[in-house]
Amino acid sequence: MNDPLNSFRLDGKVAIITGASSGIGAQTVKLFSHLGADVVAAARREERLIDLSNQYPNVMPVKCDVGNEEDCKNLVETTFNRYKKIDILVNNAGISDPVQALEEDLEQFKRVIQIDLISCFHLAQLCALRMKEQESGGAIVNVASIHGFVGSSPNNQPGYTAAKGGLVNLTRELALEWARHGIRVNAIAPGYISTELTDEMIAGESGRTWIERNTPMRRPGEVEELDGAMLLLASEAGSYITGETITIDGGWLAR
Ligand code: NDP
After folding, report:
1. Do the domain assignments include residue 1?
2. Is 240 a catalytic residue?
3. Which tens digit of pLDDT belongs to each residue from 2-59?
4. Does residue 229 lie in a domain region?
5. Mean per-residue pLDDT of the chain
6. How far is the centre of ligand 1, averaged over its atoms, from the C-alpha of 227 (Å)?
7. Is 253 within the bounds of a domain?
8. How many structural domains comprise the chain?
């Protein structure tokens, strides 16, 4: 029997990771690089990407605002021109809008939908156009959220919950459309994870207590705790999984 762990390796794979300058994205860059992939690390804070590329092997930084269509096209074309293929896309870049719905400015709502949903579709489409020409197809992993399944109030985020809910169902739709091209489309839905996005909330007593009370495991997660699901969906180990969203939430959605 071949070593079943081999199917989790990413040697020879080319992966684009958005939102790579911090948190879950930076962790995924380290993970994929460690497992042998060529990683294209994309975000706006280029200096952080350059730091990552200096610390980990086979990481190429590409400055990209996913809200800018030309930047998205440039990211995919730069990757393809360099490596002549794209095997994995991780749609991870994301922002939140902590505000009550009655007070949300429509432009802010649109901005969150643009970054957290529309850019994911655009990048998936651009990558799929390349992946469908490859015999080996491709794998797309969208970073959704538990708030793609349930609302987040009293941690109000109307645009965020709308975008993540859309991303969960977009994952199913793209999986159905692209299965015949050998492209798998899946998502992870993390619960509350310690990153720059949540640091302030977790550092504050009321935020942390709220997370602990609502999480059966009674704590926020760490970025490393997403590695297993991320890798399963991105690698050959997940070769028969598509249209799925895996929750990694300390039991939040099981309540
Ligand atoms: P961070 O704030 O640490 O990371 C967000 C990343 O997104 C940064 O690298 C940032 O890079 C990037 N980003 C934001 N806007 C843009 C943009 N316009 N163009 C390109 N990149 C952008 O938070 P997390 O690591 O926590 O978040 C990553 C993903 O995980 C998000 O989609 C988030 O919704 C999701 N998530 C997080 C949870 C958590 O509890 N932390 C729970 C559930 C889901 P830069 O500013 O350099 O552009």
Report:
1. no
2. no
3. 999 999 999 999 999 999 999 999 999 999 999 999 999 999 999 999 999 999 999 9
4. yes
5. 98
6. 16
7. no
8. 1
Q: In the structure, which protein residues have their CB atom closer than 6 angstroms to any atom of ligand 1?
A: 18-25, 43-45, 64-67, 92-95, 115, 143, 145, 190, 192-193, 195-198
Residue range of the domain that includes 159? 10-245
For residue 206, name the pLDDT band (cuts at 50, 70, 90). Answer: very high
Q: Which residue has the tokens 């719905």?
A: 101
Per-residue pLDDT reduced to its tens digit, 82-101: 999 999 999 999 999 999 99
Centre of ligand 1 to C-alpha 93, Å, is 4
Q: 188 C-alpha to center of ligand 1: Å?
A: 14
- Spatial separation of the C-alpha atoms in residues 171 and 103, rounded to whole Å: 30
pLDDT at 133: 98
pTM for the full predicted model: 0.98
- Integer angstrom CA distances of residue 104 from 25, 78, 96, 166: 27, 37, 12, 19
Start-to-end CA distance of the chain, whole Å, equals 40
Q: Which of 49, 197, 245 to mutate to test the pocket of ligand 1 (most atoms within 8 A of CB)?
A: 197
Is 250 contained in some domain? Answer: no
For the beta sheet containing 245-248, the strands, ordered from the edge strand earlier in sequence to the opposite edge, are 59-63, 38-43, 14-18, 88-91, 138-143, 183-190, 245-248
Q: What is the CATH number of the domain that holds 206?
A: 3.40.50.720
pLDDT of residue 123: 99
